[in-house]
Amino acid sequence: MAQTIVITGLADGMGRDVAKLLAQSGDSIAGFDVDEAGINSLREELKAIGGDHLLTTMDITDRPGILKFRDQVLQKYGKVDIVLSNVGIGFFDPFEEVNLEKALKCLEINVIGCAAIFQAFIPSLRKQGGGKLIAMSSLVGQIPFPFESIYTASKFAIEGMVDALRLEVAPFGIRVALIEPAQVCTKFAAKIHHLPPEGSPYRERAKRFIDKDNELIKTAPSCGQAANIIVKVLKSDKPSLHNQMAFRDSFFMLINKWLPMSVRDNILVNFMDIKV
Ligand SMILES: NC(=O)c1ccc[n+]([C@@H]2O[C@H](COP(=O)([O-])OP(=O)(O)OC[C@H]3O[C@@H](n4cnc5c(N)ncnc54)[C@H](O)[C@@H]3O)[C@@H](O)[C@H]2O)c1
Fold first, then answer.
1. What CATH number is attached to the domain comprising 235?
2. Ligand 1 pocket test: which of 148, 159, 184, 187 has the largest number of ligand atoms within 8 Å of its C-beta?
3. How far is the CA of 153 from the centre of ligand 1 (A)?
4. What pTM was computed for the model?
5. What is the pLDDT of residues 112-135, one digit of tens each?
């Protein structure tokens, strides 16, 4: 059955591919992104696919804007079935060198952005007797990664927040789920990778980390493959709380749970080639 699905950050990457897949199967897409050119070109693509979609340019930190968007969506479609909180930005820096104002912005976009879109639509989901809230988390929402302390903090926060609100909304028929990719072939990582300045005691290890990340991305799922998996979670009647994209990601999460910390640290440090 065709559904109405809200997606944040759908001008590029996984959000864009998910929107196209859903539109192809007859669903209506309502979403926004800061990238105006990306929104305009997606609007044209969705028009060519067919259906009735509502796309707008907006920053996820615009909280009055989110409420206005929510009202427009509900007025147009009457109800929303699924909300996919997809906006997320990366953050790469040795912790000692993190600019805290930039860190705060990242947490606002990644965590409060997710809270804002979920909060906006919960009343209508509750009143209609159910729906789904799905958040893009990450492998680093379970396994902390060095040089990504702020991004890790944001995804741990999303995991905790979503797991906590799960039991609050369950009696209203609202199901929640997290999607936890390790790496997906989008422009996401390239946007944030940068070397610490000359003379930084972290520069050499950070360079090896970036090189390894760039090598790993070559074998990561494509954006289209990831979108297919996300759509399966969105369309599942009873999605699991935790959803990974590849066997390697699930394997890492499993060993992260059961191995002693010293062994886990060794695996991570060797895997990311950041041994001193
Ligand atoms: N790509 C990966 O390797 C990977 C891995 C794990 C988790 N994730 C998560 O998946 C989600 C999507 O990632 P992606 O790789 O498709 O990213 P992407 O960078 O390709 O796309 C993200 C979209 O969000 C938009 N956006 C960014 N800041 C915004 C803001 N303030 N307001 C509104 N829109 C904004 C961007 O313009 C872009 O269109 C993110 O939450 C990310 O943390 C990605």
1. 3.40.50.720
2. 184
3. 16
4. 0.98
5. 999 999 999 999 999 999 999 999
